[in-house]
Amino acid sequence: MKAIRVHEFGGPEVLKWEEVPDPAPGPGQVVVRIRAAGVNPVDTYIRSGAYAVKPQLPYTPGADAAGFIEAVGSGVAGLTRGERVYTLRTLSGAYAELTLCDAGHVRPLPGNIGFTQGAGISVPYGTAYRGLFQRARAVAGETVLVHGASGGVGLAGVQLARAHGLIVIGTAGTERGRALAREQGAHHVVDHNSPGYLDEIRAISGGRGVDVILEMLSNVNLGKDLTLLSRGGRVVVIGCRGSVEINPRDAMSRDACILGMVLFNATPQEMDGIHAGIGAGLANGSLRPVVGKEFPLQEAAAAHQAVMAPGASGKIVLVP
């Protein structure tokens, strides 16, 4: 099969298109024929060597994929060859024509969700779900600010919050991104490049502040986020590209919390809860992954450049 391989950490140019052996499932494992693979910012951090956990070289990037079961190992119950699935994570990497997975790390892909949409489920929706409901403990009636609402995680957060009865404020830096956030369910949309956007958010909240913030770029926004919170408000740090200076008094005066999170810190029981909730939303149509750009698998380097560019608009996927 063909796959993307990384033999050294570095820039997008280290992503190599190579021939590798087909994976074979062992006990408790399945092989998935990939129809689309998702590209996430974390993939670029791992590739560059900047991520806290580094894979053993060489490796194939990617955790998100959608396709169908190609082969089933011994001891696997409830999964059959030809079944449509999406992956929670993989053993051999998702930027490939085939990937090896533990059987517990695939989930059924509903018939109303296409493969390219399916490649944008696990990390974006899992991250947004964990941030909203397992870390921030958001409840219906609260106000949530999705800071960076037009990217994969941001749009997932907008849809999840709207479906669970929260008042949703989304920010985006382009008109296209703001239109997309509004289309996907944000009650209010703000241009975070506008000099007065903080005052606009305060006005939308009636001056009381927002209860929850999903923050995709905390090294730029965290200090300002703390000034937007209501009493007892929570900021969930989802993305960060460097250090930031904050004034702790902004948190103290509000009894506010700064909550870090990494999706893969979730326990198996928490992961089951995450994907039970996501699966229900996919099936009933309240969750609808939005594909922004598709790249051929061999153009993974271009996809890595695109996923880090400003003005995100939907999920970036690779198609074998």
Question: Would you give an account of this structure?
Answer:
With 320 residues, this protein is of the alpha/beta class. The chain has 2 domains: 2-121 and 289-319, Medium-chain alcohol dehydrogenases, catalytic domain (Quinone Oxidoreductase, Chain A, domain 1); 123-264, NAD(P)-binding Rossmann-like Domain (Rossmann fold, 3-Layer(aba) Sandwich). 29% of the residues lie in helices and 27% in strands. The chain contains 10 helices and 15 strands. It has helices at residues 41-48, 115-118, 122-135, 152-163, 175-183, 197-204, 218-226, 248-252, 268-284, 300-307; strands at residues 2-6, 15-19, 29-39, 65-72, 84-87, 98-102, 106-108, 143-147, 167-172, 188-191, 210-215, 229-237, 257-260, 291-296, 315-319. Strands 3, 4, 5, 6, 7, 14 and 15 form a 7-stranded mixed sheet that branches. It has a 6-stranded parallel sheet with strand order 10-9-8-11-12-13, with helices on both faces. A two-stranded antiparallel sheet has the order 1-2. α10 links the parallel β14 (291-296) and β15 (315-319). The longest helix is centred in the C-terminal third of the chain and has 17 residues, at 268-284. The radius of gyration is 20 Å and the shape is globular. The relative contact order is 0.16.
